[in-house]
Amino acid sequence: MASKGWFNLESVGIGIPETQYFEGDSAFKFLGLSRTTRLYGFLGCTAIGFVLSLLGSIVLFLAQIALFAILYGLGTIISLVATGFLIGFTTQLKLMFKAKRVIATIVMLGSIGLVFVGAFVIRSDVLCIIFVIIQYLAFTYYSLSYVPGMTSAIKGLVGF
């Protein structure tokens, strides 16, 4: 039974637009998630990812690099999972490795791993911060690559 609350997006006809990605994902059919539930999952994961990354950044100033790496890395991963709720996890994986964003995806995922290496293996605050900056830049490019024409604009701006 559908909720009659003020935030029931399905009853008012707004929310996540119907596209080829949203209804065809077998994970959502298997889990039985409605569009509204998927939007809640997206918003929840985005908020949790932001809070974890923010807490990680605060902990960095307290010179606890290992806790920083855990919080910041989890925050980034949960933020990535958030978009899976919108378009489907299988579709997201396919889109992540399309030609125009495959390098950004590999750099982003690799730098997440390198943050952990810098914190736990090398134990270098400076390297962790460098890897976080690389991760942030790759995540920004990755995110903007979903906006039509944005990758060409960025490449033109940077000079590639």
UniProtKB/TrEMBL annotation:
Membrane-protein topology: Multi-pass membrane protein
UniProt-listed InterPro entries: Vesicle_transpt_Got1/SFT2, Vesicle_transpt_SFT2
Keyword Transport attached: yes
Cellular component terms per the entry's GO annotation: Golgi membrane
Subcellular locations according to the entry: Golgi apparatus membrane; Membrane
Keywords on record: Golgi apparatus, Membrane, Protein transport, Transmembrane, Transmembrane helix, Transport
GO biological process, one term: vesicle-mediated transport
A Pfam family of this chain: Got1
Transmembrane segments: 39-63, 69-90, 102-122, 128-147
Main subcellular location of this protein, as a coarse class: Golgi
Similarity remark: Belongs to the SFT2 family.
Its biological purpose: Nonessential protein required for the fusion of transport vesicles derived from the endocytic pathway with the Golgi complex.
Protein name: Protein transport protein SFT2
Species this chain originates from: Collybiopsis luxurians FD-317 M1
Taxonomic path: Eukaryota, Fungi, Dikarya, Basidiomycota, Agaricomycotina
